[in-house]
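haha ok so turns out i had the wrong file open the whole time. this is the CORRECT one, sorry everyone. sequence first:
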Amino acid sequence: MAVGAFLFGIYADKKGRKSAFLFTLLMFSIARGLSALAWGLGSLLILRFFIGMGLGGELPVASTLVSESVEPKVRGRVVVLLECF
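then structure:
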C-alpha cells in the first residue's frame, strides 16, 4: 500500500486525480478478481501486491479528489464519511 500511495500520489499530481482514481480502482478490481483464480501461492502473492498497490493509491487520491470537489462548508463531514466507508 505504501508503494501504491507513493507512486499514484505522484501520478495524480502529474496526470490528474480523476484518471489516477480510475486507474487505481481498475488495478484493484482486476487483481482482486484474478486472485480468486490464483493457480498457486506465488501468483496469489503477486496479485495481492497489486491489490495493495491499487488500494494504497486509491485511498489518498479519493480523499484529495473529494476534498477538492466539495464546498468548504461541508468538506470536513464529507471526508469523514468517505473515510468511514
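The first helix runs from residue 2 to 15.
again sry for the mixup
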